[in-house]
Amino acid sequence: MMIEEISDISAEALQRFDAIIDVRTPDEFAEDHLPGAINLPVLSNAERAEVGTIYKQQSQFRARRIGAAYVARNVAEHLNTRLADEPKSFHPLLYCWRGGMRSNAMATILSQVGWRTGVVKGGYKTWRREVVAALRDDETPLNVVLLDGQTGTAKSEVLRRLPEFGVQIIDLEALANHRGSVFGAVGAQPAQKLFESRLWERLRGFDLSRPILIEAESNRIGRCEVPNRLWNSMLQAPRFTLTAPMDARADFLLSAYQEITANADAVITAINRLSPFHSKETLAEWRVLAESRRYRPLAEALMREHYDPLYDRGRKRAGAAHAGFHLDRLDDATFRTVAEVIASALSRGASKGNDI
Q1: 4-131 fold
Q2: What is the pLDDT of residues 32-47, one digit of tens each?
Q3: DSSP code per residue over 211-258
């Protein structure tokens, strides 16, 4: 059975396949991969390093022989495990780094099984070139509208309810697995390339003639950097702004950051990262509050003395304002109401401010 070489990796084209299989090493896959791909490596991290060393330092022939043995063994393992129950109609798409030896080696075996097998022409590099072209090289502005507001005004909660009302959103914090502040770590972050792949996967599925709602962020979310095209669009974007009373904001933060406040040492570690911006005396006061678990006054002090001024400085170069919403309560009913009003405002243009 012939191996099909695929050049089109649009979302529609990829949907034709029953599985997208990345045959590269787990380390390569973790750094970045095509949307929806699963990792069935034909060489482990250690095996690839070993074969590469032999290829460069000893003998190309010996490296290929040892590599072929590893590939045959690993593909056999996949056939007996992950692929064991796939039917005769199974239609997989494979890729490696450049669409060369690794993907073709596994594709040859799968096609001999009787499966109609495709290989991405140019491999992962084809996908990466598309991402770079779309997010870094293309300077066409994106139709972005920002959801802005001081820390604790529940911007993310409102944003995540907007799709219920037909609004296109990008949740940068979810894509970066980080809340965007020194207190924002929620687990391992993706590598920069994977962050960009996730972002482009979202964007290329949108109608780019319609607005895309994004939470106002800095150009770095943890270690992930917002690519130039989107960042430049965000700098010029109009915005909806949320405000709320200080006590409501503090209550919301204490609820939203419970996994952080459960560990006073983690809070102190985060406070220490603010040392370039505040005096030793101020930091010492915040540490005392953290050590005594007085998190409410700590939250208010951080907002008043650090985050509010930081956001205010960032807004000096902001785009035009759309509606402003003052939220007396920060609860689910309020978030849905604000989301519904924003969706309505987008459908008819800018709106006046509201108290909700």
Answers
A1: Oxidized Rhodanese; domain 1 (3.40.250)
A2: 999 999 999 999 999 9
A3: -EEEE---SEETTEEPPHHHHHHHHH--EEEEE--HHHHHHHHHHHTH
